[in-house]
Write a structure and sequence with these properties.
Elements lengths: L1 H22 L14 H16 L5 H10 L4 H5 L6 H14 L10
Amino acid sequence: MRYEEEPRRTRRYEEDLRRAPLDAFKCKIPPFIGDGDAKSYLEWEMKLDQVLECFNYDDYVKVRKVTYEFSGYALRMYQGLKSVEEYYKNMNVSLMRVNVLESNEAT
């Protein structure tokens, strides 16, 4: 049984050695202002791909890191992890709590 554990330890140690030089750099995500220009978005996405390629993050961590850097219009566009229906339900509950009634003209 001890013989089986040693190859895993060696493999993990080798992975740590390969990753060690990259860990010295901090993952700095370029900010995205989101002014609606497609060209600026594509440039930002290419920079982002270059930065994230250096790190071994899973998709969830990538999304969290990238959306943290959103500002301006991009921040308002980002839906987050909830569905539209969940946001709608939360909004209705909040409106009921503060006793806001929606007029028939608005619906």
